[in-house]
Write a structure and sequence with these properties.
alpha+beta; SH3 type barrels; five-stranded antiparallel beta sheet; 3 helices; 18% strand; flat
């Protein structure tokens, strides 16, 4: 097995040596045809070469030049599917600026304040529910439900509703 490996190694080394010594010349270069002069497709088809006499071309632009902007059709975006309809919330297409914003804090329940540095407001009572938003310490919220339980349903000044652990809420402003 070792002899076979040595024989293969010597054979490969011999090929490398022969190619290094004799492989520098390009033996086919002498037999390659010279590159043809460039010609047009019309000349390939047998047409004579056309050249304009000197000074015969007019140096003035064509009379009827049409700008490219007027030639390009307007591109419209096409979306597959049914036509879009306005939201039922805003049938006119835009919100009514005179519509009343969220009710002020304290309109439905007592105002409570966040006592921790940062508290998660969740979509349901319990830590297994997803977080709706985070409330910073000192944020005033309105209690919507009972305030004596482990979790209190609250509404933020921005109108978001969710649940906060009752241990992090206090009726006293910080």
């Amino acid at each position: 097995m070792i002899r076979l490996g040595l024989l293969m190694l010597v054979t490969v080394a011999g090929f490398v040596l022969v190619l290094t010594l004799y492989g520098d010349d390009d033996l086919r270069a002498a037999r390659r045809p010279a590159a043809p002069a460039p010609s047009s497709a019309a000349q390939d088809a047998g047409s004579p070469v056309l050249t304009a006499p000197a000074g015969s071309l007019a140096a003035q632009p064509p009379v009827d030049v049409v700008p490219a902007a007027s030639q390009t059709p307007e591109r419209t975006q096409r979306f597959p599917g049914p036509a879009l309809e306005p939201s039922p919330e805003y049938p006119s297409g835009t919100p009514d600026p005179t519509a009343e914003a969220a009710a002020p804090l304290g309109a439905e329940g007592p105002v409570l304040y966040v006592t921790a540095t940062r508290v998660n407001m969740r979509s349901g009572a319990g830590t297994g529910n997803p977080v709706v938003t985070g409330l910073d310490g000192g944020t005033a919220v309105e209690a919507i439900g009972p305030t004596g339980g482990e979790w209190v349903e609250v509404r933020t000044p921005g109108g978001q509703q969710g649940f906060v652990a009752g241990q992090f809420l206090s009726p006293d402003a910080p």
